[in-house]
């Protein structure tokens, strides 16, 4: 069986947020959960818990309350909630109605793994506190709730050794940060997932690293990879198809206006910056994502997995990634179309699951 986990990075924009938090994140996430529920799927909310902590520290309680209410709603309604960390919240400040984000702590590694004398949290503290927070909030709602999965902010899992050890120390044994073929070096992002094992999923021993397949045991992390296509004939054609279909649909339907920007605009508009962005785009794999990927192309990626791996005789797990903050009405319709096609044509070989349904539950 090919088991698909539809995940959502549950977070605000880290540049500007043009509308209130409720409209940026909370409402689109409810829409997403409800649509998936009607189509026989559940959502795995990867919740950016450090944003909740930082709002509270600064005495802003309304948004954390909405976040928590949403996480409780998710668990009550058969969805799932797991851990996503954007460590730059720790040093970010708020003035004149606007966040000033400190990207120098954008990678969780930037917090360091050693114990701190100055009382600021290390990466290991943040993971421990995040897991504890989710379990304290959600076990009273469902006694079987476990925080078992992690996604690194900005997909920054590398260097992985200490990070994976810190996750295992807290009993988090699933990672879903990697997309095969991904490579990005921007100063705040730094990873290279071009040499990972061929298999859809694999176990990672922190001492051996992500490029080696380890045995399943208590000292290994299960990689529930984000679906992607790279090194595939016709990949560029697929990218062009996706962008054309996207344009046609935007013309036909009125698209929701953008609710924010990814980063405070550091890009500028010079030719070399443009070439860099274009190079990044062309060099990146096509991700199994509802962030601007049309249903036909998402389906094409799933078909590629079905063709390349023996899903009849093995259980594989794949993540779909997306961001409610940037999801407009078209993306919601595309994802709905994708779910309906899977349910109609692939029911015998593809099913939607969340992390509690992964077969070899370790804990
Ligand atoms: Zn994120």
TrEMBL record:
Source organism superkingdom: Bacteria
Protein name: Polysaccharide deacetylase
Organism listed in the record: Peptoclostridium acidaminophilum DSM 3953
